[in-house]
Amino acid sequence: MTGEALAIFFALFAIVATLLPFSRHGGWYVRGFDFPKPHVVLICFATVAMWLWYAPASTVIHWIVVTALAAATFYNVFLVIQFTSVWRRQVADAVNRDTPDSIKLLMSNVQMENTDYAAVEELVRREDADLVLLCETDRKWVEAMEGVAALYPHVTLQPQENFYGMMFLTRLDVESVDVRFLVDSDTPSIHAVLWTRGGRKFVFIGLHPAPPLPGRGSELRDAELMIVAKETKDIRTPVIVAGDLNDVAWSHTTRQFKRISRMLDPRVGRGYLASFHADYWFARWPLDHLFHTDDFELEELALRPSVGSDHFPVASTLQLVRGETRNEPQDEEKPTDLPEAEEAIRRGLEEGSAQVGA
Questions:
Q1: Based on C-alpha coordinates, what's the Rg of the chain?
Q2: Distance separating alpha carbons of residues 266 and 94, to the nearest angstrom
Q3: How far is it, in rounded angstroms, from Cα 143 to Cα 148?
Q4: How many CB atoms lie within 10 A of CB 43?
Q5: Quick one: CATH architecture of 102-341?
Q6: Phi, psi of 174 (to 5 degrees)
Q7: What's the helix, strand, coil split of the chain in %, to 5?
């Protein structure tokens, strides 16, 4: 293939990869382009250089393509650069550490087929977190984690053999913990009302919605996220939402979730925390998320070493602040957000019902 042909190919790819995610279509072949934005940024830069070098500069088409590539480059850079240290941090660093209102959370998608139970057990013991959320736990995982589960006075188990099982462990005082199925009968979520050691009430929601895959679109995932966004929108109690959301921080769905729920993302201005895929350094996305209302400041947010899963564990410590926080404002809701959310919920519930009837 000639240099000019390569320039044309990559130019078309960069433009299509940028434009397709603007579609609200839930097909995996569309939503899949939400994920590799950092890679698309690199491709855009390389393609601009290739196009300027190889393609004839005397035609109108040349400059139209160069302009389109430049616009695609700036747009993709804008989405990704927010999750680097050059951007202003949305969530402030907590002034004090390890207060009675500090909440240490460990979350890990253990990968159901992973058999390195000892690594996960050691991780949980070492982190000694107030809240532990494990995803993809089947009965084998529940049995293997009995030792560490015994360290926690409150244990919620939802073992499943379909990659959507969950374990939730906490040593904090509990008002209630419920396992809910928001969209379909296969995908559970954890909804807990808890108290800090300092006696302050907050809500924790643990999620692991179904990802878009060949043969299945993003309807179930998008509906679950929008249901939670709407439910948390008007809650006056501080809220934390965490888990493997099978979406990336810069996607339309995740940004819309933040706007509707009025939540903050502590990765903004710090780094996008690429937690998946643990085995491939060249193809990693931020699939494991932590969001919270403007009641918390951040003490820690970091990936932990591999435990044999395709996800890295994520450890974080939030502090429920007494008085005003020093956070940046939440993203403003757009007029189209709620109608789009309602439509996403409708499509997701229809998809969930169809699966039950199949």
A1: 21
A2: 12
A3: 10
A4: 22
A5: 4-Layer Sandwich (3.60)
A6: -115, 130
A7: 35, 20, 40
* Range of lowest pLDDT (4-8, 10-14, 112-116, 193-197): 4-8
pTM of the entire structure? 0.95
pLDDT tens digits along 272-321:
899 999 999 988 999 999 999 999 999 999 999 999 999 999 999 999 99
The CB density around residue 182, as the number of other CB atoms within 10 Å, is 22
The structure tokens listed for 347 are 């499509």
CA distances from 150 to 130, 142, 314, 320 (A): 14, 11, 22, 27
Task: State how far the Cα of 134 lies from the Cα of 124, in Å rounded to an integer.
Answer: 10
Q: Which residue has the tokens 């954890």?
A: 190
Instruction: Strand 131-135: give its sheet, edge to edge.
Output: 154-158, 166-170, 131-135, 102-109, 314-320, 296-303
Eight-class DSSP state of 89: P
**Token pair of 224 as six digits:** 């679950």
